[in-house]
Design brief:
Blueprint lengths: L1 E5 L6 H12 L2 E4 H11 L2 H10 L7 H12 L8 E4 L5 H13 L6 E6 L2 H9 L1 E4 L5 E3 L18 E2 L6 H15 L1 H8 L3 E5 L4 H16 L2
Helix pairs in contact: 1-9, 2-3, 4-5, 6-7
The structure holds adenosine monophosphate (AMP).
The site of adenosine monophosphate has 17 residues, from α2 and α3.
């Protein structure tokens, strides 16, 4: 199964993606994680991406599409994928279709986790991410057991540079203008499934899991 998970920043995509990859043995490809790793490693691509990320802007398509294409061309991408944070525009969705076709792969579903803006802003400013394994926590809804320490790997938790109030507003604006039109693209292909992300983490996941199980047994 090849799945896309989408949703505005702070909807809980990363948390749901972690659960989905475990239960359905999917390879998790998060373009945001790829960029954050490149920034951490100080690569040329990372330096370029950081200029956009810090402002809450989208990294240009020629960089993102190239990275995804390279990643999907590796043999381990044949076993089932979870694309997280890509595609983010109709143009990226079209580019993905082309890459998938070349690789003889196809998208089986697009799951959208939806949450209203007020809630998103409150969540994002309370989000903490593990510097080591990338796991997401939230000081309000999903706090770590020990302050600033990851429950999974004991790595240090940090507040993302792009989770400040101004950048969050910019990212939400971009989501509304550039990513929302993508819904229509996938709806027309009959691949779109929306889940209410304002519910508890486990309730959101129960809805996603039920949907994926049905899809798997089709
Ligand atoms: P995320 O972790 O998915 O919220 O991504 C963090 C940041 O990485 C975004 O705000 C963008 O600057 C950049 N980024 C991630 N995925 C993409 C993409 N598909 N297209 C353009 N920029 C992206």
């Amino acid at each position: 199964m090849n799945i896309i998970i989408m949703g505005p920043p702070g909807a809980g995509k990363g948390t749901q993606a972690e659960k989905m990859t475990k239960d359905f043995a999917l390879l998790h490809i998060s373009t945001g994680d790829i960029f954050r790793n490149a920034v951490k490693e100080g690569t040329e691509m990372g330096k370029k991406a950081k200029e956009y990320m810090d402002k809450g802007l989208l990294v240009p398509d020629e960089i993102v599409v190239g990275i995804v294409k390279e990643r999907l061309s590796r043999p381990d991408s044949k076993e089932g994928l979870l694309l997280d944070g890509f595609p983010r525009t109709v143009e990226q969705a079209e580019a993905l279709d082309k890459v998938m076709q070349e690789l003889e792969l196809k998208i089986n579903a697009v799951i959208s986790v939806d949450v209203n803006e007020e809630e998103l802003i409150s969540r994002l400013t309370a989000r903490r991410v593990c510097r080591n394994c990338g796991a997401n926590f939230n000081l309000k809804y999903n706090p770590p057991k020990v302050r600033n320490i990851c429950d999974h790997c004991s790595g240090e938790l940090y507040h993302r540079d792009d989770d400040t109030i101004d950048t969050v507003k910019e990212r939400l604006d971009i989501y509304n203008k550039q990513t929302l039109p993508m819904i229509e693209y996938y709806r027309q292909k009959n691949l779109y499934f929306s889940v209410d992300g304002a519910q508890q983490i486990n309730q959101v996941y129960a809805a996603i899991k039920a949907y994926l199980e049905k899809l798997k047994n089709k």
